[in-house]
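Risk mitigation, structural track. In case the binding assays with calcium ion fail to produce interpretable data, a predicted complex structure has been prepared as a fallback.
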Amino acid sequence: MRILLVEDEPKIAYSIVSALTGANYRVDAVRDGETAWFRGDTEDYDLVILDLGLPKMDGLAVLKRWRAAGKMMPVLILTARGTWPERVEGIDAGADDYLAKPFQIEEVLARVRALIRRSVGQGSAILTAGPIALDTRQMRVLFDGAPVSVSPLEYRLIGYLLHHKGRVVSSSELIEHLYGDDDARDANALEAVVTRLRRKLGPDFIETRRGFGYLVSDEPA
Ligand code: CA
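Fallback model:
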C-alpha cells in the first residue's frame, strides 16, 4: 500500500513516516500544497494524509482540486485541535476522516488501516482468502492458522491482493502500489516474488491471468 503524506512540520512528518514505514507502507512525503496536488493528481495512492495549513496551497484547496478532478483516494486530514469549522469544511470538501493534532501515532495507524479497508469494501482487520489470513494489526500472515514468515515486500504484495480480492490486478498497478519512490521497479522481480509466495502459501493462492495480471479469490481455479 502506498501513502502520500503531506505535512510541512518536519518533526510531525518524521514521526508519521517512521510509523508508516515501520508498518510496512510505502510512503512519499511532501511538504507543500502545490507538490502535494501534483503528486496526488499524477500518481495512484491508496491513501493520503493531508495537513491543512501548508505553504503554497492550503490543504483544503488541494483536496477540492483532487475531488473536482475525480480523484477518489481516501484522505485523512490533520487539523489543529479546537478548529471544528475547519474539520467540517474538510469533510464537506471530500475528506474521509480527520485527526486533531497532537495525536497518538497508534491512532494514525488505526485510522489508516480502517480507511484503506473501507475504500476497497473490506470490513475486517483480518483479511482472508481460503486458508490464507492476513492480520493487518499484527502484520502477520497465517496459513491454516499457522504463522508464515514473509519479507516486507511479500507482505505488501499479499496485502494488496487481499484488499482487492476477486479483482484481477495488473503488474503495473502492483508495481505502482508496492514500491516507493526510491525503490527499483521491475516486473520480473515481481514475478519472482509471486513465485516465492506460491511456494510458501500453496500453488493456488495467487492465480496468474496471462496478459492481465494476478488474482486472489476465495475459490482458486
Ligand atoms: Ca502545517
